[in-house]
Design brief:
Low-confidence stretches of chain B: none
Distance between the termini of chain A: 17 Å
Strand content of chain A: under 5%
Strand order of the largest sheet of chain B: 1-2
Helix content of chain A: over 70%
Oligomer: heterodimer
Number of domains of chain B: 1
Number of strands of chain B: 2
Low-confidence stretches of chain A: none
Largest interface: A-B, 40 and 43 residues
CATH topology of chain B: ABC transporter involved in vitamin B12 uptake, BtuC
Order of helices and strands of chain B: HHHHEEHHHHHHH
Largest sheet of chain B: 2 strands, antiparallel
Structural class of chain A: mainly alpha
Shape of chain B: globular
Radius of gyration of chain B: 19 Å
Helix content of chain B: over 70%
Number of helices of chain A: 14
Shape of chain A: globular
């Protein structure tokens, strides 16, 4: 995307609370949060070429950490948010050590299995996590911040700022020598090894960065929803991030944000008419892999070539 | 003493059930390099169809045969008409089969409802057997017997038949196998169907003691994954050893440390991974 398109998108996003109802502002807020989640997965999947079926682990662990700290320790925003990020960073640092020993299908299975351990804890350790019921009653942050984020509009602008910061940071990372090296590893890990790059270290750092950024999204989502449940760490959330990345376009900076907007929009629209959202979501997975394997960004590029 | 024997028996029988699933997953992966997430769907469909057909016809055997036949057909159709159309890379295949898992899971919830159900046991297998002081539930012994028979049949099929030799050749090097006249295309379809049939059989024999409910597809799939991670993908021996190991760990974990059951499975998995990333019997 060129600068003009980014400027237009930024202006449109900034104008959302002026033009849309509070319900739709909430919907766009959710799109932005999932965009951060999908972009974080894209760093490992799209740039480093490492598929993961357990990315919700870091999203969910941050969400639980924010919820627990806010409810039991302090309602200060920085303490809660910091705990969430630390939890996501530590979890991805630990899981990365185990998962990155494997490749391809093994990597998919191992990331899934590790995330399921957290799901098991979230589901089984009732006294800590509330089990299936989850932890309700988390207020939108105020203490510690110059403004309260209690209103939908204030929270929207806060999420938008975080989204902009995350996008900016990611665009710097993927253009840096480190990001270029990741793409090199995706294309040929062996060649990068021969060129003297520490392949493992590069992928490990990307893995932990991605996990931490997923934690940012998870923390925001707890504030957005006001509660956390085992669904946040489930394979459905992990696979949702995957389809957002693929649908939008893996390895492109803005593709995952487009994918997130599309999936959240569809979920919202379809859930209004039928309880069979998971059925439709499953069909979306099948349709995307069959008919749009390069995602929306790929389709747009093809259209532009014809025009 | 009785506690331990019963737990071992429960663990081995659950392990045999996992073996049925892992063997199919492993064969499919070995030949086609596909990680089939829809394997959990084949399992619950086996149980649900067996249950419904069994109820309508009044015969468990008819139910079982119908379930295995229908699920095999579904597997064959899925391989021929859907899986073939995506590129042979792990991620598109995983997403596609995950889509099927969601669709089948939600359709099953629609058709069979959300209440957990158990399949009835055949009359003959409802009692228990006595050896000295120890009483074994007959059904658990039956499950172990089914596992042993299937394991032996699969082994004999792979080692002693021409089709088995062709599968081994195609697993080793599909291109060379093709060049020597092996029809790898139909072989893949057949193996996918066989894997689906084994998963459906798992659903039927697991139905009476594990039950079938929304989410059972994920749960059994996850355990089957742990089995193949531990045992190694593409190896029948790995599926058997991994299945028994995970079955025993799961059973003893639940009996001894109810709150930590997940860890008794996943901690050894992590340990094995750290030492051998391709599992105990997996090819490097």
């Amino acid at each position: 995307m060129n600068r003009a398109a980014v400027a237009v998108a930024a202006a449109l996003l900034a104008a959302v609370p002026l033009a849309l109802s509070s319900y739709h502002v909430g919907l766009v807020t959710k799109m932005l949060i999932f965009a951060i989640f999908a972009m974080s997965l894209n760093l490992v999947l799209g740039y480093a070429g490492l598929p993961s079926l357990g990315h919700a682990a870091y999203f969910g662990v941050a969400a639980y950490a924010v919820a627990l700290v806010t409810l039991r320790v302090s309602d200060n925003f920085w303490i809660g948010f910091g705990a969430g990020l630390a939890a996501a960073a530590l979890t991805s640092a630990l899981f990365g050590l185990l998962a990155l020993r494997a490749q391809g299908s093994y990597l998919l299975m191992i990331t899934l299995a590790l995330a399921q351990v957290l799901w098991g804890i979230a589901f089984g350790w009732r006294s800590l996590t509330g089990g299936d019921d989850g932890l309700p009653g988390i207020m939108r942050p105020g203490p510690g911040l110059p403004w309260s984020l209690g209103t939908g509009t204030a929270f929207y602008y806060f999420v938008l700022v975080v989204f902009a910061l995350a996008t900016g940071a990611l665009s710097i990372v993927v253009r840096s020598p480190f990001g270029r090296a990741l793409v090199g590893i995706r294309e040929s890990a062996r060649r990068m090894e021969v060129l003297g790059y520490d392949v493992w270290l590069h992928t490990y750092v990307a893995f932990v960065l991605a996990g931490t950024l997923a934690g940012v999204a998870g923390a925001l989502f707890v504030y957005y929803n006001g509660f956390v449940s085992p669904a946040y760490v489930s394979i459905v959330f992990s696979a949702m991030a995957l389809i957002m990345v693929i649908l939008g376009g893996a390895g492109t900076l803005f593709g995952p944000a487009l994918g997130s907007a599309a999936i959240v929009f569809l979920e919202n629209g379809i859930s209004a008419y039928t309880e069979r959202w998971l059925l439709v979501l499953g069909l979306i997975y099948v349709a995307v892999t069959l008919f749009a394997p390069t995602g929306l960004v790929g389709v747009l590029r093809r259209v532009r070539r014809w025009a | 003493m009785t506690f331990w024997t019963i737990q071992v028996l429960n663990g081995v029988s659950f392990g045999m059930l996992l073996f049925l699933l892992a063997a199919g997953l492993s064969l499919i992966f070995g030949l086609m390099r596909i990680l089939n997430l829809a394997h959990g769907s084949f399992y619950i469909l086996g149980a649900y169809i067996g249950l419904s057909v069994g109820r309508v016809t009044g015969s468990l055997v008819v139910g079982a045969v119908a379930a295995i036949a229908l699920v095999t057909l579904l597997g064959v159709l899925m391989e021929r008409f859907v899986l073939r159309r995506v590129p042979a890379e792990e991620l598109p295949q995983a997403l596609l089969t995950f889509g099927v898992l969601l669709v089948v899971g939600d359709l099953s919830l629609w058709i069979w409802g959300g209440t957990p159900q158990t399949l009835p046991k055949p009359e003959l297998l409802t009692g228990s057997m006595r050896a000295g002081d120890i009483v074994f539930p007959t059904y658990r012994l039956f499950v172990i017997a089914v596992g042993v028979v299937v394991g032996l049949a699969l082994w004999a099929f792979q080692e002693a038949t021409k089709a088995g030799a062709m599968i081994r050749a195609a697993i080793d090097d599909a291109e060379i196998a093709r060049a020597t006249g092996v029809n790898v295309s139909w072989l893949s379809t057949a193996v996918f169907g066989l894997g689906a049939a084994l998963a459906a059989l798992g659903g039927i024999i697991g139905g009476p003691f594990v039950g079938v409910y929304p989410g059972a597809d994920f749960e059994i799939l996850l355990l089957a994954f742990v089995v193949v991670i531990v045992g190694g993908l593409g190896s029948l021996k790995g599926a058997l050893v991994g299945g028994l190991l995970v079955g025993l760990l799961d059973t003893f974990g639940k009996a001894l440390f109810p709150g930590l059951a997940m860890f008794t499975i996943f901690a050894p998995m992590a340990l094995i991974l750290a030492i051998r990333p391709t599992g105990l019997f997996g090819a490097r």
